[in-house]
Amino acid sequence: MLNKIQHPDAYREASSPVLVIAGRGDPLFPLSYTRDVYESIVAPHKELLILESQVHLLFNEDLDALLPPLLDRLSLLSHGYLTSAT
């Protein structure tokens, strides 16, 4: 099991937009940890998307909750709306 980030500083200076997605009740990573990671990211645009999910593997276990907001953000990105830092 992977229990740490392979390159712990790689996410800190991203050159493209970053979307951090978390389930509010993720049993492996508390929301406080996810927020700390999010706050340390330097990127042209970043967003933290918190779902009401209680699982860790959102793509595998809660796709119905994940897809609508994810597709919305991807649509914004593809239309050039996510270009400035937030």
Structural commentary:
This is Peptidase S33 tripeptidyl aminopeptidase-like C-terminal domain-containing protein. It comes from Cryobacterium roopkundense. This protein has 86 residues and is of the alpha+beta class. It has one domain (12-78). 35% of the residues lie in helices and 14% in strands. Strands 1-2 form a two-stranded parallel ribbon. The longest helix is centred in the last third of the chain and has 16 residues, at 63-78.
Quick recap:
This protein is of the alpha+beta class and 86 residues long. Helices cover 35% and strands 14% of the residues. A two-stranded parallel ribbon has the order 1-2.
Quick tags:
2 strands; 86 residues; alpha+beta; two-stranded parallel sheet; 3 helices
For the record, give the distance between the C-alpha atoms at the N and C termini, rounded to a whole number: 33 Å
**What level of helicity do the residues show?**
25-40%
> How many structurally independent domains?
1
Strand share of the residues?
Answer: 5-15%
Mean pLDDT: 81
Q: What is Rg? A: 13 Å
The secondary structure category is: alpha+beta
SSE blueprint:
Layout: E1 18-23, H1 31-40, E2 46-51, H2 58-61, H3 63-78
Parallel strand pairs: 1-2
